[in-house]
Specification:
By secondary structure, the chain is mainly α. The protein is built from eleven helices and no strands. Helix 2 packs antiparallel against helix 4, helix 7 runs antiparallel to helix 9 and helix 9 crosses helix 11.
Length: 277
């Protein structure tokens, strides 16, 4: 049973390390390469179809903007005002036409920040969490009765660690979902730049998309900080009973994991607060 306890805890940590490593790889990927690039062609096709709607709305928002901001036809005929309207329409059309390239440029700029954080931190990947050898020796020495308690503690702790690892990876996948959603629907909010009264919708959209991209930087920072914690595992107090040693170790380990998972899940809120959204 003692070996089963060690294997149970180690299996939970292996699952956690595997998901942490996957996150480190995913956060440095672009939407074009995610899932071997199988999703991106479909998103581009949807973007192309929505782009036609965006160009139609572009004209509508432009006309609505003229009606709401101009007092009369005479005002529209003024050279300086006509030039301003022409430039607004031309810029808005360019944004809608080349919106996909524009959004990918934003993503690449943010990915440059992520790459800088990784290179500066000195980590080529997230450091795994291993079961301390001292704790393994303590578990192996306990008798059958105490082993039952240890098995229950390890089962609960291992299950909790496994659930946290899957919650963490689901959050990362959720970020890609948001990137795809923003990209596919982009022409519609970008078309609002054509009207002076509707341009705030487009500005908010770009800010929100940038915030989703910046989530990658927060996630990388969180993983770097957790890796530093993982490099200094919780101290084992050999003066207490084996069950207490295992419980304290799992308790502190899960606390650190909860902080990481919570930070990753709240990365969107952190970025939006930073950007005033």
């Amino acid at each position: 049973m003692n070996d089963n306890i060690v294997q149970l805890l180690q299996h939970a940590l292996d699952t956690w390390n595997s998901k942490l490593g996957t996150i480190w790889q995913l956060v440095t990927q672009s939407p074009e390469n995610f899932k071997d690039g199988m999703i991106w062609p479909t998103i581009k096709n949807i973007y192309g179809a929505v782009q036609a709607i965006g160009l139609a709305l572009l004209v509508l928002f432009f006309v609505v903007g003229i009606v709401k901001t101009c007092g009369s036809i005479t005002e529209v005929k003024k050279p300086e005002h006509a030039l301003k309207l022409f430039l607004r329409f031309a810029i808005a059309k360019t944004v809608v036409t080349y919106g996909l390239d524009f959004m990918m440029a934003i993503f690449k700029i943010v990915q440059g920040v992520v790459t800088t954080i990784i290179s500066t931190s000195g980590f080529s990947g997230a450091m795994g969490t291993a079961l301390p050898q001292q704790l393994i020796q303590t578990i192996e020495k306990v008798d059958f009765i105490n082993a039952i308690f240890l098995w229950l503690i390890s089962l609960i702790g291992g299950l909790f660690i496994t659930v946290l690892s899957f919650i963490m990876i689901m959050t990362i996948y959720g970020r890609f979902f948001k990137l795809y959603l923003y990209t596919a629907i982009a022409p519609i909010p970008l078309s609002t730049f054509a009207g002076e009264t509707t341009q705030n919708v487009g500005k908010s959209f770009i800010k929100s998309y940038t915030a989703v991209c910046l989530e990658g930087a927060i996630i990388v920072l969180s993983c770097v900080i957790f890796s530093l914690f993982a490099s200094s595992p919780p101290e084992i107090d050999t003066s207490v009973k084996a069950a207490t040693q295992v419980w304290k170790y799992i308790e502190e380990l899960i606390f650190n994991m909860l902080v990481l998972v919570g930070t990753i899940k709240m990365s969107d809120r952190v970025v939006k607060d930073m950007m005033g959204l």
